[in-house]
Amino acid sequence: MNDIVLESEFVTLGQFLKMTDAISSGGMAKWFLQENDVYVNGEIDRRRGRKLHVGDLVNIPGCGRFRLIEPKSEE
Fold it and tell me: Is the pTM of this model over 0.90?
C-alpha cells in the first residue's frame, strides 16, 4: 500500500486519479471511472467529484492501493 500525503482538507477522486498517474489529464476522469472499477474504502465509487479525506483507502486495480495520510508536522 502506498501512502499519499494530503496537503489540503480533501481532494476529489478525479484529482486523485491524476495524482497517482492512473490518468494523464483531468478530462480523462469521467471516462476512466465509467470503464474501470475504483474502490474507495472497499466500495466501488464512480463519482469523480467524490471528496477523499485523510484516512481514506483507494484501490485502483492495475495502478495500486493508496492510503491518504496527513503531512508530517515539522517541529
Answer: no
Burial of 57 from C-beta contacts in 10 A (0-12 / 13-18 / 19+)? middle
CA distance 22 to 75: 34
**Burial group, residue 64, by CB count within 10 angstroms (0-12, 13-18, 19+):** middle
H/E stretch holding 15? helix 13-19
Contact 29, 48 (CB under 8 A): yes
Three-state DSSP at 64 gives: strand
Write out the three cell numbers for 30. Answer: 469521467
Confidence of residue 26 (pLDDT cuts 50, 70, 90): confident
